[in-house]
Amino acid sequence: MRVVSQKIGAWVARLGWVWVDGQVAQISRRPGASTVFLTLRDPSAELSLTVTTNRDVLDAGAPELREGARVVLHAKPEFYAARGTLSLRADEIRQVGLGELLARLEKLKKLLAAEGLFDRARKRRPPFLPQRIGLITGRASAAERDVLTNARRRWPAVEFRTVNVAVQGPGAVPQIVDALKVLDADPSIDVIILARGGGGIEDLLPFSDEALCRAVYACRTPVVSAIGHETDAPLVDYVADVRASTPTDAAKRVVPDLAEELRLINQARHRLHRAVHNLVDRETHRIDALRSRPVLARPQLMIEQRAGDLAALRQRAERCLTHRLGAADDELRHTLARLRALSPAATLDRGYAIVQRPDGHVVRAATEVTPGDPLRLRLAQGELSATVNT
Predict the structure, then answer these.
(1) Model pTM greater than 0.85?
(2) Any residues with CB less than 8 A from the CB of 171 and at least 6 apart, and which?
(3) Do the Cβ atoms of 258 and 155 come closer than 8 Å?
(4) What phi and psi values does residue 287 have, to the nearest 5 degrees?
(5) Which NCBIfam families did the record assign (predicted)?
């Protein structure tokens, strides 16, 4: 163990001096002691190191240093073999100013935006009436009171699961991230509210932490950010599904107003009743108009009209048929008269006869026969046989 510890110490000693950026989680100043002990943590990870420095170094670089402040220090890593611990020995400490903090936040904002954490397409709308609401806020804070009071005033039956956490200081981010994981894993939670009252930029720094932003982005449950006032805009506001200007505004956005919904329902019922009434009136008038038409008022009238039309057509057909039959009869009589006038029988009736040979050939001249030829004479009544003598 001694050899291993010595080799680790020798390797750490070769690292040299480095610049370290972090958040002060704890300050230990012992009365009368020249050495000050700091616990420096990484705001984006669960990592911390002990820093030792001289009181004069701390007073020169950051005389009003408090827990939760961001610092940059020049330090050398040291490995304490007896306890097997790693620490930093600082010879220069600088408290990060407001301007530098804002510049870092702007740089982080561009990084998260480039990765798509602020993309509007991925933001989800909270349900119209959540079954249960998760609330992450400070214990007995005005933000908690505002959210609960306004939400229950709007919808008295609303249910909350409240998780109280630190909302500023070095322990705020881990507690908020843990609370998010707990509420996101609860299947009865339909929406999560992050609520905190107003404060300075330093007070709201935990809500611009990269780890918290990524935790909000990873939530499957819609998250509503209600941090500070309207003018405050921590980075978690851009990642959350809904940004509320204040905790009171968050309560209004998450649950509907019962009185307003009842008013809207009454309006809808009134419009529906009026629409049905107008429809019934319109159809009643339409039925009355249909019933007032002659075809429905006196249905037999149409039959009478059609019967009259049918009788007229029958009379017209009879007249037309009688006329055509009369004309045809006259024409037939005239034709018969002409046939009778031109018929050979009419000629025979006048005393003429038709002379024919036995083969039926009609004799028209005396030269067509010779003496002794038999002939047949057709009369009007009967026939005679004859023989040619001369």
Answers:
(1) no
(2) 25
(3) yes
(4) -65, -40
(5) xseA
